[in-house]
Amino acid sequence: MLSILDLKHMKANKEKISMVTAYDYPSAKQAEQAGMDMILVGDSLGMVVLGYESTVEVQLEDMIHHAKAVKRGAPNTFTAVDMPFMSYHISLEDSLRNAKKLFQETNAQSLKVEGASDDILILIRRLTEAGIPVIAHIGLTPQSVNVLGGFKVQGKDKDAGQKLLDDAKKVAEHGAAALVLECVPKQLAAMVSQSISIPTIGIGAGVDCDGQVLVYHDILKYGVDRLPKFVKSYADFNDHGTEALKAYMSDVKQEKFPTDAHSFLAKSHDSLPDTE
């Protein structure tokens, strides 16, 4: 399993970091078998696998439940877990308590928090000092989508870009182990990556980040209808899965399944009970 130090070495050596967002045992198992560097148990599970409208509805217990499944599927892969909406915004004491619960019960290697407000910076420092590595997340932060006015590219003008660059430096200075950059211009993401010592993981932020993250279901086009501009799918499980289910249904209707090859057969008629 990679460590925080390994990830920093990868950045220093210009070795790209691969990360996938996964939510359950089978997807995590596949990610580990594929040799993925990192897995993120994202609160996007609310929309992707629970059918919620946004990440705002996700609870701490949801994250714990799914993260434990992921760790069972990928015990040897560095795993980060999102702290969900309002689990780290009420008070520092509550935030630390929730982080402790999430970190201990999931056996994760890191927690991820969104934003770079003064309160978040203090939390990053306190968690890091307590032995919980933190991955920061700036740019488009889905938990704040209602404040941001929707899922929009961030840092598009000079002032906004400067703030994002300043925020990146602040989270690094306060001890963040890595930084997710979501939906920011490619050139700005490159500037951020060059300006801080911790690895940057991009999603919709261009190739110059130190690593990339996409959602398992987007990569495989599995159960998703629309894909953001920044997603590249490498398979189409929607079509393959639907066709497979149709073929199964047809075989059932036509009594082509199950065949004797998929059935348990008595050794002889003498071993069967009488019907009279």
Automatic annotation (TrEMBL):
SUPFAM superfamilies: Phosphoenolpyruvate/pyruvate domain (SSF51621). This is 3-methyl-2-oxobutanoate hydroxymethyltransferase. It comes from Lentibacillus cibarius. Belongs to the PanB family. 3-methyl-2-oxobutanoate binds at D43, S44, D82, K112. The keyword Hydrolase does not apply. Pathway: Cofactor biosynthesis; (R)-pantothenate biosynthesis; (R)-pantoate from 3-methyl-2-oxobutanoate: step 1/2. Its EC number is 2.1.2.11. Its main location: cytoplasm. Mg(2+) binds at D43, D82, E114. Homodecamer; pentamer of dimers. GO terms for biological process: methylation; pantothenate biosynthetic process. InterPro entries: Pantoate_hydroxy_MeTrfase (IPR003700), Pyrv/PenolPyrv_kinase-like_dom (IPR015813), Pyrv_kinase-like_dom_sf (IPR040442).
